[in-house]
Amino acid sequence: MFETINIAKGVNVHVNETTQFKTINFSIKFKDRLTKEKASARSILANVLQHSNEVYPSHTALRMVLDDLYGTSLYIDSSKRGNEHVVTLNVETVNDQYLSEKGVLEKVLNLMYIVLFKPNFEHGLFKESIFVREKNAIVQRIESVFDEKTRYAQQRMMELALPNHPASITSNGTIEDVENVTNEQLVAEYKEMLTQNEIEIYAVGDVKPEMIASHIRDFFHFKDREKAIAAPPLELVKPAQSHVLEYEDMKQGKLHMAFFTPITFRDEKFPVMQLMNGVFGGYAHSKLFVNIREKESMAYYVSSSFASQFGLMFVLAGIDSKLEEKAVALILEQLEEVKKGNISDIELDQTKALLTNQLKEALDSARGQIDIYDQYMELTDSFEPEFMINRWKNVTKQDIAAVAQKLSLEMTYFLSGKEDEKDA
Amino acid sequence: MHKVEFDQLEETLFHEKLDNGLNVYILPKKGFSKTFATFTTKYGSIDNHFVPQGETEPIKVPDGIAHFLEHKMFEKEEGDVFQEFSKQGASANAFTSFTRTAYLFSATGEIDKNVKTLLDFVQSPYFTEKTVEKEKGIIAQEITMYDDQPDWRLYFGIIENLYENHPVKIDIAGTVESIQDITAEHLYTCYNTFYHPSNMVLFIVGNVDPDQMMKLVKEDQAQKTFEEPTEIKRIYPDEPKEVAIKERVLEMSVQKPKVFYGVKPEKLDLIGPDMLKHELAAQLAYELLFGRTSDFYHHAYENDWIDESYSFDYSLESGFGYALIGSDTHKPEILIKEIKHTLQNAIEKWPFGQEDLDRVRRKKIGFFLRALNSPEYIANQFTHYAFNEMNLFDVVPVLESLEVADLQNAFALVSHESQQSVFTIMPPAKDAQ
To answer: Which value, in Å, is the radius of gyration of the alpha carbons in chain A?
Structure first.
């Protein structure tokens, strides 16, 4: 799928030359270790770099040149995977064969260079007003999680269950750490990102791999860098509390459950755990959906998900606040069924078919190709969907029951609506 | 079968209107592994007052029934349709909007079987009092979930402000109370009125052979019997030009205020090419006034009147539409005042010329070409356009034909003071906690 060209130690260019899309997609990923402080500083950095630069010194000037390049989209985001923090420059531009104007690609590559290497500096620091404004923007982004109660409840549970663990550190960091970042620290973080982070550069579209690699080599001048020292394996520490109940002024109760599993992305049983999660609560044919939603009419959404980087499985359900105990009992009852291996052939086949479909479908978008390749790079250097499809194929019910038996429920978190006066 | 080629876009669209009235469109996509199909009826939450098929007197049905019907289509005597799609490796789903109910699947294999399943399940209703009762608990939880989402409340809040009588102001899913009145008989009445093939569009995009797929659909439809198509009589109330409510505030559990500023269009009877031209021209006008390169955005962002949640949009359907500008904000009064000023200034003196138009036009063309990478976008948008007698693939030529005066004229229809309204969500007052 991708052709990889190494352009410096720790810097790789991966290109998928294809005519499948009408656009050309680029991602430049800067990978660093994940800490609260790093996440906080690098989120500000992402915003400051996408605000403006030396050549286009205002937000408006930069956005105007993007509009002129046929609405080329350019944004920098901050994300995490396992114990890595990733800052990504994402660019999508129209393939100029669909336009009357030519030469758009060169202009876009040049603009990517400017965004990364020609920041809006004043006396060796980021322009103060922009620094202050974007710090504030990140604080507001972190605060806004509260408005989406499902996200908020999940974040609360993680903070309580695994404090200071990469599983609970968010990619935007914390309000306190964001507020503490100084302009000097941000400049240091910026320089470290360009010179010391591992960098993966992706291009998908009707482009030649050698052309992209030589352009980046000649213009971006990324220097050699050492591979980051492998972080110690992420250990899951048993939470101090196993059940937490909190209240907010809302109508629906949000039930969140966290399970530990010894199986992670790197484990040979990873595909088995994916199937286990699918049979249990991953799809509309799963045990949770069929029993909690369809049979009991208790919920509109109820599902499980597997966070394979950390060895965590979550169950989420939106239910009437009075029904927490009943819902937990029914969910655990379904888990018991999986542990006993009470799985029908149809359930197993459906789950294999949908995992396969999902993977193939994700590869129908350029972003999907980049994300999946970037993730699986650790397991194989020439990822094709068959790599996973073949591993799912031979999994049996007994295998699934065996991994289910290793799950342990570590926390039940319930965000409840305010106690209703009418019931009192 | 008609074949329409869009040379510049390198797309070919196949179309046939079958004997039973069903419009079938097929768009093959080279290099894609997936196929995405939508089977959509022109029936949404606004169609709550109509003459049932085979009768003469109009009836009113409970709020939320189109959405309720969508849920119930998946349950059959022999079981749940999701199960069947899953067996065939397909992910199925459905959605109900103001004007449409769409059933869809995406799959990378067994496409013929999945298309058959899609056609069969949407064309074989099965409703009993028992299954209808059972669904009420699930939908009540869905409604409750939306009730807790401030952005959804904000959206419906502004629409309720803008519209006095039009049913667009009714929440698509209805309320926990209104759905209690729904019966199996209601569902059959709505089904029989609105799910006739002549009121529907099937759109298939992806890894398919158009000839073979069209044959399959035709044979399937020829084997099924349908009533003769009749004209559907829908009744919509008169809607005054002015907004219903100028200003309203709701208190909710949020961390800071949220503002939606809405503008109601003056002309709501546009259809076909006129509608397309007006909608695109008004979108470009709003892009110039409120987009990321506008003076408004620059000042609002740098002064912290808006944050990353900022959005603006203009959309139009037959009978209703709205321009919306909004953001989370610590300064709701200033933000509201600035939006009002920006509109007023543009009414008094139109500030944009050819260069501005060229820039936002290029942006919009780029956005459209990007969107054509997505089979989901193509199928959903094409159907939306088709129900309003427009063609999705006319977007680029119409954009290219627009002149500055077109933007100015379109804006004049979506700007007047009496058409403006504002809805705000405020965090609970501190002393109340």
So the answer is: 24
Are residues B63 and B177 in contact, defined by beta-carbon separation less than 8 angstroms?
Answer: no
Show Cβ contacts of residue B87 under 8 Å, excluding neighbours closer than 6 positions. A346, A349, A350, A353
Q: What is the 3-state secondary structure (H, E, C) of A260-307?
A: ECCCCCCCCCHHHHHHHHHHHHHCCCCHHHHHHHHHCCCCCCEEEEEE
The alpha carbon of B170 is separated from its chain's Cα centroid by a whole number of angstroms, namely 14
Mean pLDDT for the stretch of residues B87-92:
96
Helices (H), B76-149: 81-87, 111-122, 129-147
Residue environment code for B297-316, b if the CB has 16+ CB neighbours within 10 A, otherwise e: beebbbebbbbebbebebeb
C-alpha distance from A92 to closest chain B C-alpha (Å) = 8
Q: What are phi and psi of A175, to 5 degrees?
A: -60, -45
What pLDDT is attached to residue A227?
77
Give the Cα separation of B88 and B110 in Å (integer): 6
Kindly list the distances between the CA atom of residue A24 and the CA atoms of A6, A95, A210, B205, in Å, as whole numbers in the listed order.
21, 6, 15, 21
- Report the DSSP pairing between strands A408-417 and B2-6: unpaired
Q: Which residue has the tokens 């570590």?
A: A410
Write the CB contacts of A216 (distance below 8 Å, at least 6 apart in sequence): A7, A13, A201, A222
Residues 91-130 of A with CB under 8 A from B: 92-94, 98-99, 129
In degrees and rounded to multiples of 5, residue A12 shows phi and psi of: -125, 145
Closest in B30, B144, B372 to A252, CB measured: B144
Q: Residue A229 — pLDDT band, cuts 50, 70, 90? A: low
Q: Which residues of B are catalytic?
A: 70
Mean pLDDT of A157-183: 97
Sign of the dihedral through C-alpha A385, A386, A388, A389? positive
Q: Which amino acid is at B236?
A: Y
Alpha carbons B234 and B48: distance in angstroms, whole number: 8
DSSP B237-250: ----SS-S-SEEEE
What ipTM, to 2 d.p.?
A: 0.92
Half-sphere exposure of B49 (CA within 13 A, CB side): 8
Q: Name which of B163, B171, B199, B202 is nearest B68 in CA terms.
A: B171
> Which tokens is A59 given?
């937000």
Q: Does A301 touch chain B (CB under 8 A)?
A: yes
Q: Do A94 and B370 touch (CB under 8 A)?
A: yes
Count of other CB atoms within 10 angstroms of residue B428: 12
Q: What DSSP string runs through A301-362?
A: -EEEEEETTTTEEEEEEEE-GGGHHHHHHHHHHHHHHHHTT---HHHHHHHHHHHHHHHHHH
For B114-126, the pLDDT digits (tens) are 999 999 999 999 9
The alpha carbon of residue B429 and the mean position of all alpha carbons in its chain are separated, in whole angstroms, by 35
Cβ within 8 Å of A, B 186-245: none
How far is the C-alpha of B217 from the C-alpha of B236, rounded, in Å?
A: 34
Q: How far apart (Å, rounded) are the C-alpha atoms in residues B328 and B258?
A: 4
